[in-house]
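User: Assemble these into one structure.

Assistant: Restating your components, then the assembled model:
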Amino acid sequence: MWQKFLWPFALTLAAGLAIPFFLVLLADPYGVSPIRAISSEIVVPTQRRFIVADIIRSRRYDSFIVGTSTVNSINPGWLEAEFGGKFANVAVHGSTPYEQMRVLDLVLRQKPMPRMVILGLDDVWCSRVEPARYHPQAQFPDWLFEDWNLGHFSHLLNWRALELARRKLEISWSSSKKRLAPNGFNDDLPPDATWSLEKAVPRLTADVQRAMASVAMTSTATAHFPTVSLLDKSLGKRPTATRLLVVLMPTYLPQDAVVIAPDACKAMIADIVREHGGTTLDFMRPSAWTTDASNFWDRLHFRQAIAEMLPSRMRAGLEHRQSQDGLYQRLD
Amino acid sequence: MLFHSQVFILGFLPLVLAAYYLAARHAQAREWVLLLASLVFYAWWDVRFLPLLLGQCTLTWLASECHRRTGYRGWLWAGVILNMLSLAFFKYTAFLISTVAALAGLELATPHILLPIGISFFTFQLACYLVDLARGDAHHHPWRRISLFVSLFPHLVAGPIVRHSEIMPQLDASPLRDGVAERFAKGVAFFVVGCAKKVFLADPLGSSADQMFAAAQAGVPSLGDAWHGALAFSLQLFLDFSAYTEMAIGLGLMLGVRFPDNFNAPYRATDLRDFWRRWHMTLSRLIRDYLYIPLGGSRQGWGGYVTATLITMGLCGLWHGAGWTFVAWGLMHGVGLIVCRAWQSSMPPMPSGLAWIVTMLFVIVGWVLFRAPDFTTAAQMLTAMVGLGDGFALTQAIKPELAIATAVAVLGPTTKAAVEGGWLQPAAYQGIALGAILAATVLAVGQGHPQTFIYFQF
């Protein structure tokens, strides 16, 4: 008699799990399915920690720019115009140095090997205390940055994957739905026309004060920058044919501000990068860009005009030209 | 391995059930299947825990075997003492050293000793078996039976605390005996309800409570936040623990074994003695039978009763955790039980609504002590709860789960009443509904690490 209960239970459970799993495999929002039915060019706009691995694995790109939201506004098309190749922007907002290195490691493991990698660093890399491994509020899917397929499958049976699959299916059926550019570019800063100095200055002042307070809490007596060693570990995996450019990103630096990224830290970074055959360009220095509040939204995020000019300056720096106007310094 | 994890529901459990029912006709074979599965289940947490569990089972069996051969009861008491020493070492060494250091004003290094999960539960069950042997209330069993009775995976880590006399005969009975489909269906229902309660109610409430208690560690919160945190934790604790128990009872039924009930709507209690008859019932009966009654209970006048109650409840607090906040919580309940008894023997009964409010206020205040990491945090929470905190505002939105959980805990039918009281019927629509709920739960736990159960730390 109780079979009347048990069979419907078992069948409902089996269907309730098999159908979502199959849908996720077909839509493949993470780019790990062997039976993907929807092009990987359709990228669902969501937390970037969950989508950059798919862009990296898609094999559509041979060059990548890695970093945090400070490189997010750089259009891969501008980089292609300067450096050639096919660029993807795989920056992750608010990613910790460890998370950035997980992204970089996946980039460097790609076959065929990447043609060029640009790594944009902000001043958290020069923190004198070891930053948290993961962002406290954003889940980082470590599994997605591993190459173990069976491990990937164990993360596909859940509401988040199902929701992403649903959105991907919806986007593929309706061209009007918002989607992310396949190369990962998504400048999500507000439209430049909405920028105003009156709004920017208080924000910049507060940001700088906060950063200075945080520096004041740490000892500046020693040149100990624990995060930098992460770079050494990841760059050690770099294929020799891959061109490497490390960029210390422009940061708002008013004249009276305490130096957050001291020369000693920059020199350590440059030493590591040089050891691994790369070039380091320092835009994180007082210059016409970084001392002018009108170039920034907040302490870390520069405006569109700077983003557009950066690629050509990067190229100039890579071609052994020191900056005439002091916007950057090549750290040889 | 958590009961509500995908690896358990989709991997471990189906494999174990298949192996168990394939071996069902052979008593020894099915016992070995269950024992092996239970050891794998336990080792999944940390394989380093396994030697201790097996060691204490073997020690208990050796003590019983020596007693069987010689008739000398000293072997049994030696077994009890060694089991308790094991618990004392793993759970209370650091606590004792830090207490001695604080009292003597010394700076002593506190050793970091890994606490094996479930040690309080399996140690008590082994010790009670030896005590029952000494009392002549138990039979001698082979190593396999003793190890299985204690390590049976549904109840191993957080109870219900079972007695050999209620488990051994059920292990003897074939799981294929009459009523197998009904038992299995009811087991499924218990498991699904417990799973859903844990994932959809207890865990969201836990995140609210964690935020409020973290804020109380930093300073005195507002009245609204303090009550929000206290209520969220009170409901989380009940739903979390009762959900675990229901999953355990469900798993037991799927294996043909009915574990004892552990909860009976404790938040409907109208006095503290009633509360303890409804809350963690298997622990209550254990400390009653093996501690309170041997201490004299209520048979030795008021003085004896007060002493026995305070010792019993103080130790009950200490059993929950190696910290003075737990001891204080236990003693607080001890005093509450004494006052309750005195009131009931000398005063007219309170109106039931008022009695319920007084009881719940007492219980909730107790849970603040139970949850707070130290007395300072507890004091800051309680200060805010009486309106002497940082204003009255609620800084965090109240989740709808709080209202649903309150309704479940105070008004709704108990899971036992729903499953075994006639609501559950051999009907297809009920199977479909429960199948859909379990599928939704499995999808919900798949997007991160499932939250562990509060009682696992005890």
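The mean pLDDT of chain A is 87.
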